[in-house]
């Protein structure tokens, strides 16, 4: 049996059965059951790490990466460069297996000059691990450890190209960030930093610094993930009314904490205080801008311990000057450190801290240990649950399976980008249609890819084969699977189609909602390329490459030409176009593959065509 066939083998042995997998309670190295001989080889290949250059056999107790040293040769200790302050407890862990050099405050040139002498580099948010750094380290540098959550300072693509594994420490600083959010909230409301500065300057100004109370006020938490939900818990304890906006969070998780999930518009309109906890993604970049500030209550107060880039900082200065926003408390900035003459930082109604969210003794100890262990494990070639750029499957297994793996991820990405509103994702169902023997369909890898597609575009979590089920469980995503037999015994392809269904969820594109009220997308592989074949009730056929515009319109002649012309005029190259309709003369949808993202004006022009009822731009 081929490696890819082995990957699809199943222990279940029953066709057309429905089963819901409960994700494992504890994270463990995955055990993938295989029914046939040859499977073990495939299994060990799947589990070997990204930089794997030596395929290993299942008999080996530990898996290794990129070591050319034979087992009998004495192994030199790896060298680890720690470029930013790391907790002593983590340094102790590192020293047990590595020669450790701490070189804090290096200039970019110093880092470039040094990095080639090390097997691993550990950083926090203050060091830019650029393509140049990764190229300078090529040949020796195998692991970059980010002692914290956000990896926006690491060039992931360059790391992957250099065969360098990037690991992070995503959980140990959650509580610290939440506590800092609460600290800023209270400080801001009571003018603590302004009053402190005044008193130290000899001014006793009790009347000037009358604050506002928190109890009974409405706090909107934007981004109900790890940090946001901890802030919610604490704010409830302060007697605040907590609402939250997170289109991808499960409503029952919010309910359990006593927070109500609402739409973006409702959250910002109702809030007295707004606390930001979403990751910086293309969708959240500058989402707090003139328009959104305009919709807030006059006198709203804003806290940001997420990433500076989610706020248009010039617009915030304008809103502070006009009094629309009464106060802001900021731990993070678009550029760090911000300019010394930054109007925002110097604004009298703004409280600032220099990216201190994760900076508690306890969090730094936790993060340091978490990253030291992750780096140690990665250097030994063990599986890294917190690997950020680990590919799911090594090359030899990918040959036949690659398009299905990509299809599963892209359907997940597509489905999650269609989600809108306040209800959150209640459940995910993946339906595989296959002509293969039921024993030959283990869907673990495909399920992991769907999870990756759903989670990564909207969070700071990175999903790989090791952590997929754990991540889904942690986020409250219940992923049910169904396998449907396809009656085509001669079919060579492992799968006919994959359907991803998000149950009872609101959508940015009503055309993606099926009869049952679910967002439904279906795809299949054609000529080795993943294609989208169904959206909601509509059949389409568009290759899943580049980006996609979905457009719902009244079924009438000339629509393709109109939309095509608008895109052509703006130099947007159309790679694919397909129209699907439920019945003649009623409604149709157009799926248009485009190489580049059309600008706002172009999209508005498409929306202005009278027969167009709705449209959405999706990144694949
Ligand atoms: N200031 C500091 O020192 C620290 C900052 N952070 C930052 O805090 C942020 C949150 O971190 P975690 O909670 O660990 O991440 P997380 O991934 O657990 O949570 C992020 C949440 O935001 C939601 N989200 C995504 N797009 C959204 C949108 N458009 N609108 C509303 N919600 C959206 C996601 O569904 C997810 O639930 C990250 O940006 C992280 O880098 C984290 C730790 C320390
Ligand atoms: O973990 C994160 O995302 C943070 O923002 C913390 O950054 P730091 O490690 O304190 O430089």
TrEMBL record:
One of its GO terms (molecular function) is phosphoglycerate dehydrogenase activity. Pathway: Amino-acid biosynthesis; L-serine biosynthesis; L-serine from 3-phospho-D-glycerate: step 1/3. It is found in: Plastid, Chloroplast. GO terms for cellular component: chloroplast. Its EC number is 1.1.1.95. The keyword Magnesium does not apply. Coiled coil: none annotated. Gene3D superfamilies: 3.30.70.260, D-3-phosphoglycerate dehydrogenase, domain 3, NAD(P)-binding Rossmann-like Domain. The keyword Amino-acid biosynthesis applies. Keywords: Amino-acid biosynthesis, Chloroplast, NAD, Oxidoreductase, Plastid, Serine biosynthesis, Transit peptide. Transmembrane segments: none annotated. Belongs to the D-isomer specific 2-hydroxyacid dehydrogenase family. This is D-3-phosphoglycerate dehydrogenase.
